[in-house]
Automatic annotation (TrEMBL), chain A:
<dbReference type="InterPro" id="IPR010075">
    <property type="entry name" value="PRibForGlyAmidine_synth_PurQ"/>
</dbReference>
<feature type="active site">
    <location>
        <position position="196"/>
    </location>
</feature>
<dbReference type="Pfam" id="PF13507">
    <property type="entry name" value="GATase_5"/>
</dbReference>
<keyword id="KW-0315">Glutamine amidotransferase</keyword>
<protein>
    <recommendedName>
        <fullName>Phosphoribosylformylglycinamidine synthase subunit PurQ</fullName>
        <ecNumber>6.3.5.3</ecNumber>
        <ecNumber>3.5.1.2</ecNumber>
    </recommendedName>
</protein>
<keyword id="KW-0436">Ligase</keyword>
<keyword id="KW-0067">ATP-binding</keyword>
<comment type="pathway">
    <text>Purine metabolism; IMP biosynthesis via de novo pathway; 5-amino-1-(5-phospho-D-ribosyl)imidazole from N(2)-formyl-N(1)-(5-phospho-D-ribosyl)glycinamide: step 1/2.</text>
</comment>
<feature type="active site" description="Nucleophile">
    <location>
        <position position="86"/>
    </location>
</feature>
UniProtKB/TrEMBL annotation, chain B:
<dbReference type="InterPro" id="IPR036604">
    <property type="entry name" value="PurS-like_sf"/>
</dbReference>
<dbReference type="GO" id="GO:0004642">
    <property type="term" value="F:phosphoribosylformylglycinamidine synthase activity"/>
</dbReference>
<keyword id="KW-0658">Purine biosynthesis</keyword>
<comment type="similarity">
    <text>Belongs to the PurS family.</text>
</comment>
<keyword id="KW-0547">Nucleotide-binding</keyword>
<keyword id="KW-0436">Ligase</keyword>
<protein>
    <recommendedName>
        <fullName>Phosphoribosylformylglycinamidine synthase subunit PurS</fullName>
        <ecNumber>6.3.5.3</ecNumber>
    </recommendedName>
</protein>
<keyword id="KW-0963">Cytoplasm</keyword>
<comment type="pathway">
    <text>Purine metabolism; IMP biosynthesis via de novo pathway; 5-amino-1-(5-phospho-D-ribosyl)imidazole from N(2)-formyl-N(1)-(5-phospho-D-ribosyl)glycinamide: step 1/2.</text>
</comment>
Amino acid sequence: MRFAVIVFPGSNCDEDMYYAVTDQLGETAELVSYTATTLAGFDGVLIPGGFSYGDYLRCGAIARFSPIMPAIIEFANNGGLVLGVCNGFQILTEAGLLPGALRENKTLNFICKDAPLKIENTQTAFTSAYGQNTEIRLPIAHGEGNYYCDEATLAQLKANHQIVFTYQDNPNGSVADIAGITNEAGNVLGMMPHPERAVEWLLGNTDGLPLFESMAAKVRQ
Amino acid sequence: MYIAKIYVTYKPSILDPKGESIKSALHRLNYETVTDVTMGKYFELKLEADAATVESTVQAICDQLLVNVNMETYRYEIEALEVQ
């Protein structure tokens, strides 16, 4: 499987993402600049965390109009697997590939810690390898991870089983404890926690690895 | 030439944590009469546009980039500028 790791000005988790899917997962990957205009030849797209365009205006608002975005939207609309983590999640909501928006944390703190999560749906292209294990811990590191959507959207997310991860101890004020959601088709996942920072025992946690294994298994189907 | 002054705030239904934080600071300063604080963004855009299209252009700019309509709301004032 060949992953594209998108690099925006201000991305800072791109190398971690690359390392997770190459050295730890054993697949191939390429860092793809925000100035590229095609994703031909890739099986999955990873939008990493960071502060694209300095978070100016709103998180993800300016990245959403960078040259690579039409290719990402086309890739997603054709059913390709797209994962956005942290700032990547914010970019996906700004681009309209995922519903809702990310607001400032309720407490105004930048929160950097491990968060216990519940996997609400283990039947997705991103969570199938978790099997029956529905409680994991992943690092979170964000100032604007407070997920918001209106009540009608929340009802749709629930009805379509699009809520994939929830916080067990809601740190930021997110609606319905939401930590990660998919689009209706299930091929685009956005999440605030960082699976790429939890892929080896040397760092004390491998709970993120099955997410990437799930994506690889889906592509090989 | 026109100048558009654009004010963006969270929708009233959305908690504004910065506004709340400023309100508690004002209360600590004994301004107990302050019952609500809203913090938003202010933009000034100068546009070379004609009278027929300037308003629709400003609206499109707000909807496409300046405002996230999922959680924010906006209002604007448009004034004609004297050509220097």
